[in-house]
Write a structure and sequence with these properties.
53% of the residues lie in helices and 0% in strands. The protein has a domain of 157 residues. By secondary structure, the protein is mostly helical.
């Protein structure tokens, strides 16, 4: 018969952080760090990027785990340091891949599709990172976006191919770094993903280009346009559209594993139109084969699944097994 400690260990290895955090104090009350570490792991698993760097974790979570989480953290004020996911989205995409893998293994497919949707929304910023030197930090936009002749953020300009929401996001992003923290957080909650799409439109499908992207070096433009084209395609693939496929609103239809794999197979075929999208056809050992390779091709740098959640799980297993003091 399994002991209570065995069951707690199984929960840790299954990344069931919320259940483990609730049950562990009844079995191992001496392991006082377990509930806080579980809360930390649960925030990572649910992609609560606003709170990855919560100060309350300092006593319970090893410094190396906190540092890696901060790399994925979204700054909550215009001047917060370090810049986390605004400095580079590559660690965040590594975490996204780890979450997608875990959700697949746990057959939590609705949460898995939600993570894929998030990845699709911000993928253009991953493509822009090599030319920007950051991943879309509004405090560091190049002055070229405001160059003479630029229509970037010009509300009501009929020559611009941006949608109304993209124009609003583009206009806001050029001034949000001077807003108070409340305005900064509202922008990221509601508009930053629209800004990602606006940037991709500028370089990949604008029918009447203005001067907004003239700051990009000539030798980098073709590669950037191709990566952004693939990013826009990914956001509209069958596997990402599964999130909106429910007959009544969101969340009323959960796809089966077979439906997810079929949608991914059709998505790979749609992506396989150029050298960047072709990387999605690789068999790289991931549950959705080729997804890490695709993200790496869009980023212009390797993107591999993180091990942050696995390391939190291993630390919890260690804490659970620490003998009770005599």
């Amino acid at each position: 018969m399994n002991s209570p400690l065995d069951l707690l260990t199984a929960l840790a290895r299954r990344y069931a952080f919320a259940d483990l955090g609730a049950l562990a104090p009844m079995v191992v009350p001496h392991a006082v760090l377990v509930p806080a570490l579980c809360e930390f792991g649960q925030r990572l698993l649910t992609l609560d990027a606003e709170d990855f760097a919560a100060e309350a974790d300092a006593a319970a979570v090893r410094s190396d785990l906190r540092r890696r989480a901060r790399d994925c953290h979204m700054p909550q004020t215009p001047r917060e340091r370090p810049r986390g996911a605004l400095a580079s989205l590559r660690p965040a995409y590594g975490l996204l891949l780890e979450v997608i893998k875990i959700r697949w293994e746990r057959r939590e497919l609705s949460s898995m599709i939600a993570a894929l949707h998030i990845a699709g929304e911000y993928l253009p910023l991953l493509a822009f990172e090599p030319v920007l030197g950051h991943s879309g930090d509004p405090a560091r936009w190049p002055e070229g976006l405001r160059a003479e002749g630029s229509r970037f953020g010009a509300i009501g300009d009929r020559e611009c191919d941006h949608t109304k929401s993209e124009k609003s996001a583009a206009e806001r992003t050029l001034r949000v770094a001077q807003e108070p923290p409340e305005g900064w957080r509202t922008y990221f909650d509601r508009q930053h993903s629209q800004l990602a799409g606006a940037l991709a439109t500028c370089v990949a499908k604008c029918r009447k280009p203005c001067t907004a992207m003239d700051w990009i070096p000539e030798e980098a433009r073709h590669g950037l346009a191709l990566r952004c084209k693939v990013a826009l395609t990914f956001a509209d693939t069958p596997v990402v559209r599964l999130r909106h496929a429910a007959p009544v609103g969101h969340g009323f239809g959960v796809p089966s594993p077979e439906e997810v794999l079929d949608a991914w197979a059709r998505s790979r075929a749609l992506l396989d139109k150029n050298g960047v999208g072709h990387r999605a056809t690789r068999d790289d050992g991931f549950p959705l084969p080729g997804l890490p390779s695709l993200f790496g091709a869009v980023a212009g740098a390797p993107i591999r699944p993180a091990t942050l959640l696995a390391d939190v799980s291993a630390e919890l297993v260690r804490l659970i097994g620490v003998p009770r003091p005599r």
